[in-house]
Amino acid sequence: MRLSPAITELIQALRLLPGVGPKSAQRMAFQILERQREGGLRLAAALTEAVEKVGHCEVCRTLTEDAVCGICAQPKRRDSGLLCIVETPADVLAIEQTGYYQGCYFVLMGHLSPLDGIGPDDIGLDILAKRLREEPVQEVILATNPTVEGEATAHFIADLAHRQRIATSRIAHGVPVGGELEYVDQATLGHAFSGRKVIDMN
Amino acid sequence: MRLSPAITELIQALRLLPGVGPKSAQRMAFQILERQREGGLRLAAALTEAVEKVGHCEVCRTLTEDAVCGICAQPKRRDSGLLCIVETPADVLAIEQTGYYQGCYFVLMGHLSPLDGIGPDDIGLDILAKRLREEPVQEVILATNPTVEGEATAHFIADLAHRQRIATSRIAHGVPVGGELEYVDQATLGHAFSGRKVIDMN
Ligand SMILES: [Zn+2]
Ligand SMILES: [Zn+2]
């Protein structure tokens, strides 16, 4: 059976979403058409609105429809002197959800990847360098991913910061809290050993 | 962190899709905004087009944007004299994918459910009764789901067909081909026993 063209196109467009295979796309399309037509129109409107309006914060580069995002707009965040460097807006969200960090962010929207032709300017390091020169940043916290590219990117940014005599730190990597050693991957376990801390017995 | 309103609304609208939890909705929204903006607009257009144009086939009630669906439009299907009753358009698709059945369908878009106020007319049984009276149907094949409601619906339709002296059959339920007894649920195993067939030794 050939489904009618409008249904076929809807299923194919749904497959563009991450994690949606042919079966789920079909289930989604039928559910929308059978009993969520208003929801379907709401999603269409939300997609159009977001794609047309959402751009990047001119201070930290995260996704927002405002010129300056909700975090950069808070004076107490800017005054903290802390600048955390992450690869994606999702990383910002994950860190914010801990409630632990109260400084600012800079979102690279990627990482250095010379083989893919992604150099410093492509991830906004020209903007970051200017910010480090002009703003009273006291500490740069490197929270790029613990991958080869993330580490190389962190190293490159540490260099930038050192040239401005700004202190830099790298977030700790190791065994997740509550995780069992047995199920932790080798690289993480390696990080956990090389980053081990002396226990102060005093 | 409060995400900006347009991103928040996109995440909430994506959660209307079946099987999409808060984490996947967030991942989908960020992926669209970071590197699939054209895909996002394509999905918005497909949703609008499908919701506005797709209705029900006037012969079999399945979802289609044409007055009569691609199956009902085939004379050799209509001439087969076979009419298979299913609950949803997805069931039609599943049966079509076997390539085994070459007759027509009638899609209930649900099943009888007196407790939810869903009676015969709500699942198109008035239209079906008319079709059984007026068309030369030779066999009604009941392929509703093997649930309490599906069985009750099949029973009700078998009655309708018998009043027109039309032969009826129920598709077989039992252990899936390739399935292991050990992993089959009790109800299916019960069906498999009660529907057992004599092995002809000749
Ligand atoms: Zn910002
Ligand atoms: Zn039809």
Elements of chain A, N to C (H/E): HHHEEHEHEHEHEH
Class by SSE composition of chain A:
alpha/beta
Shape of chain A: globular
For the largest beta-sheet of chain A, the strand count, sense and barrel status come to:
4 strands, parallel
CATH architecture annotation of the largest domain in chain A: 3-Layer(aba) Sandwich
Count of alpha/pi helices of chain A: 8
Strand order of the largest sheet of chain A: 4-3-5-6
- Spans of chain A of at least 5 consecutive residues whose pLDDT stays below 50 are none
Helix content of chain A: 40-55%
Oligomeric nature of the chains? homodimer
| Mean pLDDT score of chain A | 90
CATH class of the largest domain in chain A: Alpha Beta
Topology:
Two copies of one chain form a homodimer.
Chain A: H1 5-14, H2 22-35, H3 37-53, E1 55-56, E2 63-64, H4 75-79, E3 82-86, H5 89-98, E4 104-107, H6 125-134, E5 139-142, H7 148-163, E6 167-170, H8 186-194
Parallel strand pairs in A: 3-4, 3-5, 5-6
Antiparallel strand pairs in A: 1-2
Describe the protein in words:
2 copies of one chain form a homodimer. With 202 residues, chain A is an alpha/beta fold. The first copy, chain A, has 2 domains: 5-53, Helicase, Ruva Protein, domain 3, CATH 1.10.8.420; 63-170, Dna Topoisomerase Vi A Subunit, Chain: A, domain 2 (3-Layer(aba) Sandwich). In chain A, 45% of the residues lie in helices and 10% in strands. The first copy, chain A, is built from 8 helices and 6 strands; from the N terminus they run αααββαβαβαβαβα. Chain A has helices at residues 5-14, 22-35, 37-53, 75-79, 89-98, 125-134, 148-163, 186-194; strands spanning 55-56, 63-64, 82-86, 104-107, 139-142, 167-170. In chain A, the strands form 2 sheets. In chain A, strands 4-3-5-6 form a 4-stranded parallel β-sheet. A two-stranded antiparallel sheet of chain A has the order 1-2. In chain A, β3, α5 and β4 (104-107) form a beta-alpha-beta unit. In chain A, α1 packs across α2 and α2 (22-35) crosses α3. The radius of gyration of chain A is 22 Å and the shape is globular. The structure holds zinc ion (ZN) (2 copies). Residues 57, 59-60, 62, 68-69, 71-72 of chain B line the site of one zinc ion.
